């Protein structure tokens, strides 16, 4: 489970870095499936509280990788806290990706296939983190 989450986070990190680098250099994005990636990533909706989505994505994916690696080596007394932070962060990433997907499809009516790919990665990471770590998170939430 941990290996799958790390691989997905690495893929998401590559997408976020690709968008970040090209956006900073004003280079056009290669947007598969005839999307409008350049329009979407340069729109006024491409940031939250002044933080560009691609930078948040870089932070998110690096944090997920570090947290998953931490679950492998963390002392047992901190394992529950590490898992709780991991699942909470993955839930936050999933909710943010839902928000950005809604903005693309419902507000600006253009979509970025790279961004949709990142949203799918966030969703899968969230599902895997819930599934893989539920025995630890469930009792923490008293469920």
Structure explained in plain terms:
This protein has 143 residues and is mainly α. It has a single domain, classed as de novo design (two linked rop proteins) (Up-down Bundle). Helices cover 76% and strands 3% of the residues. It has five helices and two strands. It has helices at 2-24, 37-41, 53-73, 76-107, 113-140; strands spanning 47-48, 51-52. It has a two-stranded antiparallel sheet with strand order 1-2. A hairpin with a 2-residue loop joins strand 1 and strand 2 (51-52). The longest helix has 32 residues, at 76-107. It is elongated, with a radius of gyration of 16 Å. The model has no long low-confidence stretch (mean pLDDT 92).
Task: List its salient traits.
elongated; 3% strand; two-stranded antiparallel ribbon; 2 strands; de novo design (two linked rop proteins); 5 helices; mainly alpha; 143 residues
């Amino acid at each position: 489970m941990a290996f799958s989450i790390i691989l997905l986070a690495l893929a998401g990190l590559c997408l976020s870095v690709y968008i970040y680098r090209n956006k900073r250099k004003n280079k056009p994005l290669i947007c598969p499936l005839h999307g409008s990636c350049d329009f979407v990533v340069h729109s006024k909706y491409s940031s939250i509280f002044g933080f560009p989505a691609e930078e948040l994505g870089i932070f998110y994916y690096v944090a997920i990788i570090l947290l998953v690696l931490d679950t492998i080596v963390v002392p047992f007394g901190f394992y529950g806290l590490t898992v709780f932070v991991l699942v909470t962060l993955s839930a936050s990433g999933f909710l943010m990706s839902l928000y950005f997907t809604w903005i693309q499809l419902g507000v600006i009516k253009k979509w970025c296939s790279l961004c949709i790919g990142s949203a799918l990665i966030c969703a899968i990471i969230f599902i895997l983190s819930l599934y893989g770590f539920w025995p630890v998170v469930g009792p923490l939430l008293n469920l």
